[in-house]
Amino acid sequence: MNAPARPKKSFGQHFLHERRYIERIVAAISPRPEDFLVEIGPGEGALTFPLLAAAGKLTAIELDTDLIPRLQAQAAGAGELSIVHADVLKVDFTAMAHRAGMSHLRVAGNLPYYISSPILFHCIEHAAAITDMHFMLQKEVVDRMAAEPGSKVYGRLSVMLQLACRVEPLFDVPPGAFRPPPKVDSSVVRLVPLAADARHDADPARVYAIVKAAFAQRRKTLSNALRQLMDADAIRLADVDPKARAETLAPMDFVRLAKIGEEKAMNVDS
């Protein structure tokens, strides 16, 4: 039997090992044989092999070359495990689904906490090709993802994810469930991309610019925070108070601001 892998700080590795939490995560995902499952960062395979046993096939994205042979050896006879050696931020999930002849895939993983937000933003860029996502993340990040307007932790991540997905925190996982134990509590969250008819129709890049500017300095009023993008009159046209602060706005308020800004820009160009 192989000795346990040595976690690498450079990859932010914390290997999940406690069986009851593994079983809860697999139960939450509820994998089926017809699913196209993609796991981000399989590590030692704590989730990989229960998922593989349930679905019969799985694609894992792993950057650490030292872990790949171990996973391949363990997978012998366990099912169809495909390992993609890549940085997940460079993986085109939409193309991956199409190459497999599938319209959608399901994504899961214990994400490296130091790059969890970039991974989340990358995934929502491919939301139209994803059925759902189940991730283990730092609890503080999950709290921000699910935060409502007015909350101290409501911010850019909250707005951008909630405009793309239904965010459902599931349960917390203590540090002792990992090797080595992280210094923070973790949480498992389910993200379900919104149906096509429920998604906003504003320019995503403009929405992102509005949200980023609005939250860049939280204590500023919108008229000050957005002054490089739109004036107070334009903010009012979006049915938003220019004296309000970003953390008081619902996600769709930012969409209206983006659409007004887009209309203004088109009028100037014409």
From TrEMBL:
The keyword Zinc does not apply. It holds the Pfam family RrnaAD. It is found in: Cytoplasm. Keywords: Cytoplasm, Methyltransferase, RNA-binding, rRNA processing, S-adenosyl-L-methionine, Transferase. PROSITE patterns: RRNA_A_DIMETH, SAM_RNA_A_N6_MT. It comes from the Bacteria. GO terms for cellular component: cytosol. Its main location: cytoplasm. Residues 21-195 form the Ribosomal RNA adenine methylase transferase N-terminal domain. S-adenosyl-L-methionine binds at residues 14, 16, 41, 62, 87, 110. Signal peptide: none annotated. Its EC number is 2.1.1.182. GO terms for molecular function: 16S rRNA (adenine(1518)-N(6)/adenine(1519)-N(6))-dimethyltransferase activity; RNA binding. It catalyses: adenosine(1518)/adenosine(1519) in 16S rRNA + 4 S-adenosyl-L-methionine = N(6)-dimethyladenosine(1518)/N(6)-dimethyladenosine(1519) in 16S rRNA + 4 S-adenosyl-L-homocysteine + 4 H(+). It is an enzyme of class 2 (transferase). Belongs to the class I-like SAM-binding methyltransferase superfamily. rRNA adenine N(6)-methyltransferase family. RsmA subfamily. Specifically dimethylates two adjacent adenosines (A1518 and A1519) in the loop of a conserved hairpin near the 3'-end of 16S rRNA in the 30S particle. May play a critical role in biogenesis of 30S subunits. This is Ribosomal RNA small subunit methyltransferase A. It comes from Dyella monticola. The gene is rsmA.
